[in-house]
Amino acid sequence: MRIHGSITALATPFDAAGRLDLDAWRRLVESQITAGTQAIVVAGSTGEAAALEDDEYAHLLESAVALAAGRIPVLAGTGLSNTAKTIRLTRRAAELGADAALVVTPPYVRPTQEGLVAHYNAIADQGGLPVVLYNVPPRTGGDLLPETVARLCGHPNIVAIKEARAEPERMAALLALRSQGFAVLSGDDPTCVRAMLAGADGVISVASNVVPATFRRLCDLARAGEAGSAGSLDARLAPLYRFLAIEPNPIPVKALLARRGVGHGLRLPLLPLSAAHAAEAEAMLALADQLEQQARG
To answer: What are the strands, taking DSSP E only, across the chain?
Structure first.
């Protein structure tokens, strides 16, 4: 399985009472597929995985798999702070029909690089799914170094990495490891075009929750090496990127989705977007709608 192109890290919609809004979830998933999104992530950090109960996780993943119906890959977030628990959740995701597991470096515990090698090899050996490594040091407190990735990427069940560090040097080091069996994905919307023009296979995006057709177009241009057109579209998206970082993810993106009737809020300790940013949210929604209309032709 080759994971590539425009991949959306889906937000999880809740209703006004704070319960899963499965109707909104189904509409979100289907809208992504019809817009051309090439894979989706269920229960990643954008999906508030840490706030989900076990049965909710299962409902979301089962529903996404059923809706995708083989049209696009469904990745399940399974990374936890303990290896044995991660293996169990990865096996559960396999039972529920996921195509691959997105496994973040263990949050909070800060293992050594040797510990990370042992952790990922165990999951790849025992989890029952292809594994996508996920490195996002600001959220986890640890950094999966390129030399460590070099020791992991030859494993037949380790198929990709999502790298959220934005430095071009980090992406260049990972692109040197890219192969037919190992994809390199950006995990940073504002620098994903640069990464794809350098050879990255795609992006796992937050922004594509609200501009899926635009992001498919962006990825197609960048992966085809059309630097001018990709750069121009990327520049138009820059205000949206800035807004989506104005408060911790997924607060801003869920504010935009809510304005489209997809979900109502977040779960504590996350709060809805501050009132001070409401006007900017309206402006960003208008920008997103304009971009999507143009991308859909």
So the answer is: 5-9, 39-42, 74-77, 100-104, 131-135, 158-163, 183-186, 202-205
Q: How far, in Å, CA of 16 to CA of 276, rounded? A: 22
pLDDT of residue 15: 96
Question: Long-range contact list for 91-95, CB < 8 A, 24+ apart?
Answer: 91/126, 91/127, 91/128, 92/58, 93/61, 93/129, 94/127, 94/128, 94/129
- Where residue 5 falls (left for φ over 0; alpha for ψ -120 to 50; beta otherwise) is left
Query: Distance between CA atoms of 36 and 32, rounded to whole angstroms?
Result: 7
Q: What is the pLDDT of residues 197-226, one digit of tens each?
A: 999 999 999 999 999 999 999 999 999 999
Q: Is the pLDDT of residue 1 over 90?
A: no
Active site residues: 134, 162
Q: Which residue has the tokens 């800035």?
A: 242
For residues 100 and 91, the answer to whether their CB atoms sit within 8 Å is no
| Three-state SS at 6 | strand
